Fold this protein.
Amino acid sequence: MNGSIESVDKSLKIAYRIYGDGDETIVAFHGFGHPKEDLGFLIDHISPHQRLIAVDVPGHGESFFHPKREKKTPITKEEWKNLITLLCQKESIETFHLCGYSLGGRMSLVTLEVLPEKIISVTLFSPDGLMKSKLYKFGNEFGLGKKLLHFALAHSKLAVKLVELTGKFRLVPMTKVNFVKYQLENHDRLSRVKTVWSALSLCWPDFGKIFNPNFSVKRIIIAFGKHDPIIPPSHGKALSSYMNDYPIIIELLPMGHRTLKKEGVEYLTKRGYWPPSSS
C-alpha cells in the first residue's frame, strides 16, 4: 500500500510504501539514488508480527520538494519532525524501529534526535551523518563554496573534467571520483544531487541532543562495510565518546558501501541483531 504526507504549505511531501501488516513497525530510509522500493526485499527478513514502512527521502521517488525552496529555504528539523509525526498519526504508529542506509542513515539519526520518545531501536547500514567531509562543509556552509557548487552543478561537463583531474593527481581516491562522475554525467541524477544537497543541508544529527540522560532507545546497531570507500568504518569514531554509556554496537561487514542488501541483513541476522526487537 502506498501513501504520502504533505506539509501545510504544500512545498514538501514524502511518499511511502507499506509492506506487511504486522502490529510492530519498522520505518526505513533508503540511500542516495535509491527509491523506497529498493527496501522491499526486507519484507522477507522481518518477523510476521512486523510491517515495514519504506519512505522516499526528499529528492527521490515520489517525494516532492518545491524548486523555489532549493536555494534559500532547506528543510528544517522541525519540519521533518512534523512530517514523521503526521506519518505516525496517519498509520496509527505509537512507537517504531528505525532502519537507514547511507543518506537514509543520516535521516534516521535526525529522526532519532527530534522524536526520541517514538524510537525503540535503530539499525544503520553505512550511515551518512556521522561526519561531514571538508568538501561538504565548503559547499554547504560557506558563501564561496555554495557559489562554486551551484556553478559546478550548472556546468556539469566542466565539473566532470575537474573531478577527473583530482583523481589523476591523486587528490581524491578513484572510487570517490567515479561515484561523483556517475552522478554528474546524467541529467536526472544531477537534478537529484541539486535537490538533495539543498533540501537536506540543515538535516544533520546533533549527538549532544541525541545522547542525553533521557535516552531510552534499546540499542543502536551500526554496520559498516570493511571495504567502503564512501563511508569508511573510521566514521564510527564520531560516536566513540558515547559508546561506554549508551547501547551502541558497531559491526564490520565483509563488503563495500552497499551493505543494506540480502547478504548484509543475513550477516546481522546471524549476529542476532536483525530483525529489530522490542525486547
About this structure: The first strand starts at residue 2 and ends at 6. Residues 134-198 form one domain. Strands lie at 2-6, 12-19, 24-29, 50-55, 64-65, 96-101, 119-125, 219-225, 248-253. The chain has two domains: 2-132+205-270, 134-198.
